[in-house]
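Aim 2 progress update. The chain analyzed this quarter is reproduced below.
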Amino acid sequence: MDELPFVITVVRSGGIAGLRREWSVEVAAPQEADHWRPIVEACPWDEAPHDQVADGFVYDFRVADMEAVVTERDLDGPWRDLAEEVKRSTAPHH
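Predicted structure tokens:
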């Protein structure tokens, strides 16, 4: 994540219908990196829970060489902040 550009990807999969959604943000400018680094670094990458939930959503987070899979039940605190910020940043602007 020290090298620019880097990509932040959030994939939500699962649920009863097995739907998959993906959101990605490419961080290329230093000022963008200053915004994203604290959000990404707040997540406990080494402590992400790995339990599966039947018919529940699972979030797969990828940033540079880091990856974590978090169930919707465990999507709180910094994980929720990261997911929401990536989704917000990729939403169409009117």
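The mean pLDDT is 90. The longest strand covers residues 6-14. These observations will guide the mutagenesis experiments scheduled for the next reporting period.
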